[in-house]
Amino acid sequence: MKEEIIIAGFGGQGVLSMGKILAYSGIMQDQEVTWMPSYGPEMRGGTANVTVILSDDRISSPIVNNFDTAIILNQQSLDKFENAVKPDGILIYDPNGITHPPTRKDIKIYTVEAAEEAARMKNAKAFNMIVLGGFLKVKPIVKMDNVIAGLKKSLPERHHHLIPMNEQAITRGMEIIKEEN
Amino acid sequence: MEKTEYKLLKGNEVIAIAAIRCGCDGYFGYPITPQSEVMETLMELKPWETTGMVVLQAESEVASINMLYGGAATGKKVFTSSSSPGISLMAEGLTYLAGAELPCLVVNVVRGGPGLGTIQPAQSDYFQATKGGGHGDYRLIVLAPASVQEMNDFVDLGFELAFKYRNPVMILSDGMIGQMMEKVRLSPEKPRLTNAEIEERYGSWTVVGKPSTRERHIATSLELDSAKQEKFNQKLVAKYAEVTKNETRYEKIMCEDAEYLIVAYGSSARISQKTVELAREKGIKLGLLRPITLYPYPTEAIREILPQLKSVLAVEMSTGQMVEDVRLAVNGKIPVEHYGRAGGMIPSPEEVLDAVENLIWRK
């Protein structure tokens, strides 16, 4: 198994931490992982993205041009990464703020209305976990137990009381993700 | 048996953690992107409360490297970290440390240059790291990690080599390895040496106050008698020969049947490893030789594999620096080409494959 994922959106949406939780979940199930963020001018306001690779074998390049899955959270990132999805790959996006939806026919496209759902849950911080849930529904590459174990590892102890909320958000994401084509 | 515990850490973070765990006595540095997490992590972990390690933000890079000089002269395990422009500021201190035969560890998380350049990853400090940077006939021992695990491992190794040869050691990393997270197995913890232990191991040269029983020690690089200075230069030559004989490290990937070879280190080696996978899928017999030590350079390893090769491609994130050492190793026997990106641009495995195919086609 090898999964090459790009997660891209605005800074502050939890893009990097979503990737970190995914990477930690991979470690929990004895996989090799890499997490390669954009740390350049983007980090200082604007877009943020991270490439996460989970693999059963040693990972060569942590930087790749084409992805099995793109998780897209704003229009700029959609414009940038739609064409970087491998044929038969998956593109997941939150339609909130998207004016030009993806048009490719050779990939699977899903929407997850995570911003709206987070507002409904009255918890803006649940946003990225709702998205993660959507992804895990479509691509169950890590087991829920390992995600929780990963959350425990990546969150400082003082935040461990938030884990049930995160679990709930992930479950909600699994429920609301929709196939678009 | 207890299961090995892995952590998910950034290259920069693990440098700090590994330093504390291997019994480092002091860090002196000045922040600069893309390596500021080294000092940030140290400040967060507060090792002065646990191991007693000193962590100090100096007023500049020039001050940092000279604090290292002082610490090293007393036999303490001291290190600093910076990125390219900061390392240039340290160049004077480094040559003084080499001239005084003092051990220390310097981490360069390279960014694109020249000048202030960019904050994105590059490998454009190869010449500076391996051929000098400071003035005079000296060498740094240069380690090139290609993973976060090696960032961890090379801290301890770097200190070992620094003290074994009484020479500054540089970890030459870049923004990609520094900022990337991977799974890491941390090294076992080692206590800091006590002053008595330092005296026992390094008492022949440390500057810690002169007892009446011996002559004074002086940590200096000044020698006005040319004959003595030349003798010292020859001593360094002998030391570097010893380092070359004992410490040259490299990794060969898919080289057994290779007809074409990429030579690449650090980040470029990771990218090129993917290129090897892609080439093998196309039936191209491509291998990768990854120098782990850049000084000493694995010249012999390249020479040994030459008879089976048709051509060699040096891949680096610079406009062509390490390629010169590949050419010296190959010595005109087969074509050597260079493929590089610069200014913070990172080559993709696919574009490196294009370069390989161009090389084959031209042949």
Question: Top keywords for this entry?
Answer:
heterodimer; A: 181 residues; alpha/beta; Pyruvate-ferredoxin Oxidoreductase, domain 3; 7-stranded mixed sheet; 7 strands; B: 363 residues; Rossmann fold; 2 domains; 13 helices; 18% strand
The proportion of residues forming helix of chain A, as a percent range, comes to 25-40%
How many structurally independent domains of chain B?
Answer: 2
**What is the first-to-last residue Cα distance of chain A?**
25 Å
Helix content of chain B: 40-55%
Rounded radius of gyration of chain B (Å): 21 Å
Strands of chain A, total number: 7
Q: Which CATH architecture of the largest domain in chain B would you pick?
A: 3-Layer(aba) Sandwich
How many E strands of chain B?
Answer: 14
What's the story with the biggest beta sheet of chain B? 7 strands, mixed
Second CATH tier, the architecture of chain A:
3-Layer(aba) Sandwich
Strand content of chain A: 15-25%
Q: In words, what does this structure look like?
A:
Chain A has one domain (2-179): 3-Layer(aba) Sandwich (Pyruvate-ferredoxin Oxidoreductase, domain 3), CATH 3.40.920.10. The radius of gyration of chain A is 15 Å and the shape is globular. Chain A starts with a strand and ends with a strand. In chain A, helix 3 (114-120) crosses helix 4 (127-138). In chain A, 47% of the residues are buried. Chain A is of the alpha/beta class. Chain A has helices at residues 15-28, 75-81, 114-120, 127-138, 144-154, 163-176, and strands at residues 2-10, 32-37, 47-55, 67-72, 85-93, 108-111, 178-179. Chain A is built from six helices and seven strands; from the N terminus they run βαβββαββααααβ. By secondary structure, chain B is of the alpha/beta class. Chain B has helices at residues 11-21, 37-45, 61-73, 84-99, 126-131, 148-165, 175-179, 195-202, 226-247, 266-281, 299-305, 323-330, 349-362; strands spanning 7-10, 26-29, 54-57, 78-82, 104-110, 141-143, 168-174, 181-184, 250-253, 260-263, 286-291, 293-295, 311-316, 336-340. In chain B, helix 2 links the parallel strand 2 and strand 3 (54-57). The longest helix of chain B is centred in the middle third of the chain and has 22 residues, at 226-247. Chain B is globular. Chain B starts with 6 loop residues before the first strand and ends with a helix. The model of chain B has no long low-confidence stretch (mean pLDDT 96). The chains are: A alpha/beta (181), B alpha/beta (363). The A-B interface holds A 20, 23-24, 27, 32-37, 39-41, 60-65, 153-154 and B 6, 8, 33-34, 118-120, 175-176, 179-183, 270-271, 273-274, 276-277, 344, 346, 348-350. Strand 2 of chain A pairs antiparallel with strand 8 of chain B, so a sheet runs across the interface.
